[in-house]
Every structure is written in structure tokens, then in C-alpha cells.
Protein 1
Amino acid sequence: MSIQNINAVKNYLKPEKLLPVFYLCGEDSVAIDNALKAIEKTVEPLLASELDKEIINCEKGINANTILDSVSAYPFGSEKKLVVVKNFSALKDKKNLTDYIKSPNDFSVLIITHFEKKPDGKSDPYKSLIENNFCFEAKELKGIEFAGLVISLINSKKKKISQEDAEALVELVGDSRSIIEMQIYKLIEYVGEKDVITLDDIKKNVIATRQNSVFDLLNALGRNERVKALKSFNNLLENGEDINQIIGMLTKFFSIIASSIEFAKDRIPDDIAARKLKTSKYFYQNCTNAKYFRDSENLRRAVRALAKADLELKTSGSDEKTIAAELVSTILPVKGR
């Protein structure tokens, strides 16, 4: 057996399919909490008494026997007993749970939450958890990996969105789970009775409500609009954006432009090119539309300017706005200079 993705929990959310043990681990605490709530929602209707649900916090100095005593005690007239174990990393004698994990009671549902990377599986109790198919990992999502989350959340609201448009949404709002969820709820309300959320809906709803977007900066640079680019950069800084993240996005922007020039020579379609670069088709096309940097000399100057700005950030101690102004001025020099 192997460690299952946290999304696989949904396969066990019927009374007849409930596992006796769920070990929920990983770095995505929101996904773990959501999985925990989903399991609780399935089990709680089977409980005839509040006494048949127990929450055990391992930070309170308890040992494995406390957990074993709870899962081994028969329920008070209920069909099931629910035991939730939190802060599992604080439990010092975890290994003492091994025998129970190998042969759990059929009347108890034990849920263990562990907000850390997946176990190596070489030692117990983790080895037995994995071997018995009880282990579910919530990996921390990055970049367009959030597209799967977008699709899942929208599907749960009886709506649909394409993979391509889900990736575009992530590119626009960033990879903050809370912000993505907030934007999805806004989109659901915006489309009303429509079954499908499209890129046009995203542009009208999401972009229209985002002030000082990094896309404003990218678009201004791509159109050689020096004053507008500098204003966008300063607005981003004034609104709390990290200059290192902005430079990181600019680096991605210019890197994709460079790759797109080569892909264009080979006539590679945009969707395939975007996949190769692990970005969304929307962002890829945004890069290809930056006509100013289709000129090789303009692109080389931008890349050199980024490298210089990155070095200054690390060594000079200069004011961020000063570095931003110099960066934009170097990327888009005044004509005649």
C-alpha cells in the first residue's frame, strides 16, 4: 500500500465505507481540517450520545494508553464511536498504537491529525498506518497545482470550469488558498444560474476587483508604457507586496517570453507550450502579447536589469522604491538615452 492523497478521503464518506482509522498528515492544514470535518459529518449521525465523541489533544501530556482506552470502550448505544486525536507530533509513545492500528475495533473511528510532512513509513506506527491504507497526505500546493483545488471547489457547488480557465484564475489571484476560495465564492454568486464558469466571467469579476495587480505592471512593461509601469510597481509596494515576489514574477515573465520566441519558431501551439513551461495558457498568452520584448535586445536588457536589481536588494540596502524606479527605467529607457 502507499500513502493516499487527502482527496481520497471522499471515497470513504459513507457509513458502510468508513475506515476504522484515518491518519491525516501533511503541510496543507486547511485541506486536513476540511477532511476532518467531512469525516466527522459522516460519523456524527451514527452517534446516539455526545459521550461517543471524544477529542484528545496530545499537547496536554497524554500518552498512547489514553487513546487506546477511548477507542476500545464500547459506545453508549451508538452505532459508532468517534475519537479525534490532535497535535499528534506531541505524543511521545506513538509506537504503542501499532498493535491497535494492525487490528482496530470495528465500532470505533479514530481520526489522527498531524500537520507535518508525510512519514517515511519505515518505522511504526507509520509503517502500519501505510500498510493498512489508513494514511492520507495533504501536500502543500504550489502555483497552477491549485487548479485542481479550483475545479474541485467549483464542482462541489454544482458548477463547472475547464482546467485551462482554472489555471488562469490561479495565475490572476495567486496561490493563497484563502484568496482563491474567496474568489470562487464571488464567482459562484456572479454567474448565478449558469452552469459553467468561463475565462470571460473570471476577467469581468476577478480582474475588475483587483487593484494594483501585478498584471498591470506586466502589461505596462510589455506595451513600453514607462510611466504606467512605474506607477503600478509603486502601487504594489504601497499595498504590501513583497518586492522579491514582484521580481520573481518579472523573472518568470521574461523567461516565458524568451521560451515563447523559440516555441513560435517551431510553431508549437500555445496550450502545449504552456504545459511545457508549467504555466497557464492565459499567462503564456499574456507573455506572448508583450510585443516590446519580442525584440532580443530589449529582452536582454530586461534580464540584465533584473539581475542587477536582485543584487542590489541583497547587498545595497537601498530603498525599495528607488530600486523599483531604477529597474523600470533600465528596462524601458527614455528614447535617445
Protein 2
Amino acid sequence: MPRRKKTRNKGQTATDAITWFNKAITLGKGGDYEDAIECYDKALNLNLNYSEAWNNKGIALGHLGRHDEAIECFDKALKLDKNLAEAYGNKGIVLINMRKYADATNELKAAKDLFSEKGAKKEADKAQEYELLAKNAFELILVLSPLDEKFIRSLNSESLTELKDKTMGIAKTLDDIIKEFEKKKLSEDVIHLLQTKAFCFTVLSNALSYEKVDMNKLAYAEALFEEWGFKEAAIAVASLIVFIQVISKYSSLNDVSKNVEAYLLELVRITHVLNGKLTEEISEVIREAPTVVKTPEPEAKVSKKPKTRKRKSRSRTRKRS
């Protein structure tokens, strides 16, 4: 006589899903994200409509740097529950890590609004903090872009005197930008990197003005760029060091021969990566800054069983990107 296939009771299935969900949370808190994901998958195999499990799986994937997969999980969670504020917030944080600051701002604003509607002030404030971080990062890149172009144009100077005048103006502008963004919410590492970048510009104009240059600080800048993996920027700083060593042999720019001047102008053109390339790399730093952008640990709500019926989708009242 053939054996009959055993069927699970719906209530038991929901309970088992919660059990796997809670186990995944414990593993995640211990930093064991791979095993946590396996447990979330087991919970989802029992109940695909478990929106909280999709959200928490996205968090674990985000910790592992699997950002595209994390976004897919948050989207599935939001398809099941469009009012799941945590999913909007976590999606926004991952978008920051992906350097998609405008999109991140929208998601984090949605999270903030939903938390506020629920009276969850602490969570709303945290979402607003991340929203501001994304907004400031986006604004910083926009502000730096035209300065990049201006600096590159200055490298086509036909004389050292012209180069001195142009770089002094750019250094002043960059210094003003730093002062403005120091008042805003940004990673301390990024601010420090911007200050180092400004110092490199100041070094160039100071050297051309025959003012004292802190060579130890310049060497530190080279080491900093190497530590962060900015190889081209480190090469550019090394070129600045050679530039200063050569020009310091003369009492004034008037004493520099045409041949040496041509050599110095060619040498300093390498420093263009201190602006154009480094701005791109700074955006990477903002994306990865561990001291500011942290994915919060999931908080489980297990007092009720997950819904097993699929909810009817309703059109959103506002666009979320």
C-alpha cells in the first residue's frame, strides 16, 4: 500500500518559519551572515509572503556587500508590505553604499515619513540622519565637479606665473568648500581626505610663491593616498615633491630657465588626478565609510505569525526611486 504524503498544518508552517527567522537574527547579530541568509531562505521556503524575512535577508546581504541582491530583497518586502518602513530605510542605506545618493535620499525620506506616522520618533530621527548623509554626499560631488574642470584647464598654463595665479584661486575655492561641508554630516575620513587634497593644491601655489612647504605633511599625504589605494593620486603627490625640490633650487620664478620651466609644467600636469580622479574616489569613500554608514541590526517582531495570504497590490501615492 503506497504511503500517503504528509501535509503540514498551516499554523505549524507559520511557526516553523518564525523559528528559522529568529535563528537567522541570532546568527546575524553574531556576524554570521552567510548562515543567517540560509535560515532566512528556509523561513521563506515555508512562507514566501514573509515580508520581515525578506527585509532581514536584505540586511544580511548588505553586510556581505551583495548590494544588488539586497535591493531585490527590500523590493520584495515592500511589494508585500508597502508600509514596512524598515525596508525603505535599509534600502536607502544600501543605495548610499552603492553611491546612488539621490535614490537613497528618496527611500530614506519615505522611511522617515512612515516612522513618523507610526510615532516611532527614534527610528524616524535615524532615517533622517541617513537621509541627510546621502543628500550631503550628493551635493558634495556636484560641487566638486566644476572645480575639477577648472583645475584641469589651469594645467594648460603657458608659464609658471600663470599656473601660480590659477592654482591659488582653486585652492581658495576648495578651502571654502571644505569649510562649508565640515558643518554638514559627512564621514570624518572623507573630510580628512578633502583637507589633504586641499593641502596638495596649497602646496603647489605656495611652492610657486616661494613660501614654506611642510614636506613631512606632503609625504603623509602620499602615504595616505597609498593606504586608501589611490595609486594615481599617490603618484601625483610624488610628482609634487619632485616639483618642489626642483623649483626650490631657484630664488624666484624669474631665475627659472625656459627648459626647466617646460619640464616643471609637464611634471605638474600629472597632478590632475588630485582633482578629477580623486573626486571619483572620494565618492567611493563616502559609499564605504564604516564610521557613519552602518546597516542597523534587524529587530524582530515575533508576537504575531506572518501572513500566508498574498496581499492585493495597491498603487503607490508617490513615486519612490
Protein 3
Amino acid sequence: MQGGASSGGIMLELFGRRLSSPLFIPSGIVGVDELLAGQLGLEDFGFVVLKTITLKPRTGNQGVRVYDIPCGMMNSIGLANEGMDVFMKETLPRLEGLPIPYMVSISVHSVDELQGFNRLAGLDLWAIELNLSCPNVRHNSRGLVAQDGDLIFKIIKAARRLFNCHIVAKLSPDVAFIDEYAKLVASAGADGVAVANTFQGVAIDVKSRRPVFDRVVAGVSGPAIFHLALKRVWDVYRTVSLPILGIGGVYCADAALAMAMAGARVVGIGSFLYHRRDGARAILAEVVKYLEDNGLSWDELVGVAHGVIRDKQA
């Protein structure tokens, strides 16, 4: 049965691919070296979104990059990555040994910049995430790409023409009405939507009386943002029929179940992995047990809290 529980896992489909778990690793959490080291328990995940790639290599932001806060963490990594050339020549060949599907993630700030990723168009990729919402890399003085509706529409439209694979738009939670942005990316041709990136926050060191981060603003993640992220997933599900990749503060099975009930087709386990690298195993086992105890399939769970289970095309 599609979206049903199997022994030790849950079978479902996303973008035409059969997955063995509704849990995934969002972009920015784990690098390729660790993915291939065999210590993460990748069998507990349906897929992984790779760390975001930029056209040119980035060393990332200066100063403090990670800061613990009650019920979560803040980060100002700044999309540190090897750049497109090294990714194509060295990283991609290594991914042939990955035991689960992967989604490539790219950072794009303009239609012209998008054309620089045209080498990806010739690859047999499953899906590409357009990271339009990194809180640690500003588009301009006005904010993030994902806060500029006209621009994200143009970028998605251009990506739809350029790539033959599935396209996922990663949205920012820091907008007034995220459902309106979801409508935009759907109308532009996106196949799915990741809801959402980290929230923007500020930390102050009271001893120095200065911001903790050099850039002042940093991304907030962890259990502290879960119910805020859940609200964004809820709003997007009520607005568009695209599959939702639900992300934000999931730290236990109940949170994963709630994210699905709000409308997430798949559920990301992100900063929780910094505290428990094997944390997904217990979450998946409890989710499987919940489905079995209640006689439900995963498909029946997605969006059930809205009162009507919609037939969503994966």
C-alpha cells in the first residue's frame, strides 16, 4: 500500500521515487564526508538534501558561527562550500556510493546567476532545491531573495526552463504571508516547496554588550521554532497542492507526526542531529508504531488535521 508502514520503515513516494522513510536530512546539516562515513544511520532516512552549493567557493561568515540558546541553536555559517567547479569534478562522483537518494541544493540570487548552474541540467538528477532563503546571506539591503516575490517567480520560471528534474523552492518563514509565496512558486512551475528555512534572530553578549554574530542576524533553529514552523506548513498546505518538505524544530516522534498532520509530505530532521546523530532511528520507530497501532498509512496521515485528506500528487 502506498504510504504504508513496512517492517522497520514506511514506504512512500515523492516526485516519482519510492522512499523507505518519510524522514529526510535537510540541507546544511551534514557534509558529504560524514554522509559517506557510515555513522549516521542513513537507512532511517528517505533521502538527504546536500549542503547548498554556490557558483564560486565560499569560506562562510567570519566570527562566531554556532551559538547555543535555550531549546535550540543559532548559526551564521554563511553557505560555506566548495563551489560549483569542485562540486562537479570531485563531490558528485563520490555520491555514487550514497545508499539513499540525494537532492542537490543551489543558492541563486538572480536569473543570470542561475544560468551559471547550467551544467547541472545535463545530469540525471532526481531533484534540485533552490535555496532562496538562507538567513545568513543577504540578497540586497531589502533582505532575502525569498522575500522578493517578483524575483523568486522569475527564478523559478527560469529554473523550470533550464532543468529537467523536479524543482523544490525553499521558502523563508520571515515573510508576512508564506502562503502567498507558496502560490507564487507553484504558479511559476515548482514541483515542491520546502517549508521553511531557519528564522532570523539576534543574540547579544551581555558581558561585551555587543551582538554575538559579526553579521548581527543569524538563523534560529531547534525545538524553539517547531510550532512556528508548523504554522507555516499548515498555511501552505491549505493554499497549494504541492508536496511540502516540512522543516523546523522536529525533535521527537510526536513533532514529526504533527508536521505530517499539518500537511508535510516528508519531515526534515535537522539540528536535532547535532545532539543525537542516531536520533532519527527512535523517531522513525515510534512513527511506524503509531501508524500500526492506529491502522493508518502515511498517506492518510498527511494533512489529516485539516479535516479533509487531499489527494496530493507526489
